[in-house]
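Lab notebook: predicted structure, single chain.

Context: the supervisor wants predicted structures on file for every construct in the current expression panel, including those that have not yet been purified. This is the next one on the list. No modifications to the sequence; it matches the entry in the shared construct table.
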Amino acid sequence: MLRHHICQFGRKLVRRRPLGPREGVESGLSRCLSTLDLVALGVGSTLGAGVYILAGEVAKDKAGPSITICFLVAALSSVLSGLCYAEFGTRVPGSGSAYLYSYVTVGQLCAFITGWNLILSYVIGAASVARAWSSTFDNLIGNQVSQLLKGGFSLQVPHVLASYLDFLALVLVLLLTGLLALGASESALVTKVFTGVNLLVLSFVIFSGFMKGDLHHWQLTEEDYKLAKSASNDMSSLGPLGSGGFMPFGFEGILHGAATCFYAFVGFDCIATTGEEARNPQRSIPLSIIISLFICFLAYFGVSAALTLMMPYYQIHPGSPLPQAFLHVGWAPARYAVAAGTLCALSTSLLGTMFPMPRVIYAMADDGLLFRALARIHPRTHTPIMATIASGTFAALMAFLFELSDLVDLMSIGTLLAYSLVVFSVLVLRYQPDENLSKNKKTGVEIVEIKPAPQAGSLQPVPEAGTVLAPPSLHNPDKTTPTLKSGRIVYACSSLLALLLMILGLILAQWPSHLLSGEPVYTTGAVLLLLLIIGLTFIIWRQPQNPTPLHFKVPALPVLPLLSIFVNVYLMMQMTAGTWARFGIWMVMGFAIYFGYGIRHSLEKDSDQQPPASSSQTLGKNIPSAELA
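Prediction complete. Output recorded below exactly as produced.
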């Protein structure tokens, strides 16, 4: 009896949502977003204030002029995850992004963990950007707001609460919450306006830098550094020289800089939350993700090149690199354009961070994993009204009260975890049999032949009577379509590979000297680890893939997804112990909600009591599928 209850409980944790839409359920969200709207949303949320600040920090202390290569490496790493989001956007066009993708592939518990961490990432991200917007605006008017608030609303709880109550950030988040509640099209219009202004300002910065720049700044020597020291009144303002030239800190500097620049491309995943609001999600979601990442790369690449051409990298001011660069070339008034661009970038970044937050909460509540009241759709605006109000109020209070600098790393853990699960889901799902490929668990027969894929826009038909049945057999690489057995092989190998890549990422992040020490024990362990990874990858590669045509598919499976998982895990393993401890506290809160409410109210709970359908039952039933051609 105990074993039965344990097995039943375990099945609840891994129950999955159907890949297709639920029968008789229609979304109340409005399909009003075009591809241009999604591109503006993706660029706006990704191309935030980092483009005005991050380039200066990395160029001065980590990479010098080779920061352009750092952004190229970081963009390629981000594209690995972006391609997987693009395929899932085609395959499962629904709200929820990584949460939904995990739910249909790896099961309910992993999906809840993903969604719960996405909520944390979006809330902290929105509060942080709101504080940055408030600080930037305050600097433009001579810090009058902060001085007034510190005098009347000062808080004396260091490292927990902020030094003062930030009313400006509170009001800003609440205003944007109201805008999001008005409708998706209204939010998209504001995003397009601010993103357009931001791109105009960045274009001005890039062209100005190329006009006023000097190629000699990419070939600096020790003599130039000595001259700069002798001419500088503040010796501490100069950064390290390194070895000079285009790569003053070598390949190690490029790798360190690329790891930092990777976070500059975080944000494109908000596009994937619009699956129920995009007019043509199968086409527009993958297209807009790729276009957004390409535009952001061009902007980061161009600004970093212009900055390092305008002034020597060791003289860059990390706090305000672009205004100081224009002062260096004698264009002081241009700093006002930079200030305007910074505010526009922060505005679109804030709106882009807040937009997906209620969509994830709505998707989880609609599935019963969060409180059902949060799934309410406003009948006139067609927005998730309760989820929007709840998430906006939470983010506003975070920006109003808390010191967020210690919590920002939690954003990275949540985002990278979501990226990794999406990539894993794409890898597993590509090798699974079609939804209509069913198995009779009583007789052990398996449908191994399916009808050709339907035309674009039509649902997958079920096999008709007369379909060839065959007994199950060991995997045969000559088969062109996957079977249940080959799908299980891929699932098991992918799970083991994820664990091995996690171990490899932990070793490289925390103990790289041991791995490269040359000692026989460490060398043998590293070789065995690599051989296991290569062997499992080869096994997955030999399995047949699902031939269902999609608007977009990730190329070079399984290598690209596995490379993406490794990059994400490596970056996660660089987080501090304190960050992981705070992550653990957040997860305890989430598990309390899931095991206290979600596991009992999930819409998939009825599937636990239903007996498995036989082949004859499956053949007589029209099963919907989201795998549209």
